[in-house]
Design brief:
The chain is of the alpha+beta class. The chain is built from two helices and four strands.
């Protein structure tokens, strides 16, 4: 015998609830000043402004082929290290250097 239900009829699917363990970052340390910031309370805004750099070295990379590097900087250290090189990002499609 074949049963087919639609439009609010009985579901032919069975479900099981699973509880999944997750790892959630709660604290981060600046690689330059070594200050730690927590992802809670007043430090939450500092935590959210961290600059995280991840580099995967490819063939011919000065960092090494296949190397994986990372750096975490608080916003204050990022400004000290990169400040003179940072500029406001243009609006999308604004000030494009088009090669014809």
């Amino acid at each position: 015998m074949f049963y087919f239900y639609c439009n609010g009829g009985m579901s032919m699917r069975w479900y099981r609830r699973y509880t999944q363990e997750m790892f959630v970052p709660v604290k981060i340390e600046c690689d330059r000043c070594h200050k730690e910031y927590e992802n809670t309370g007043n430090e939450c805004l500092e935590y959210q402004e961290f600059v995280c750099i991840f580099i995967d070295g490819g063939y011919g990379s000065i960092f090494g082929d296949g190397s994986q590097l990372q750096c975490h900087l608080c916003q204050h250290c990022a400004k000290i290290l990169f400040g003179e090189y940072l500029r406001e990002a243009p609006e999308e499609n604004e000030n494009l250097n088009i090669i014809e």
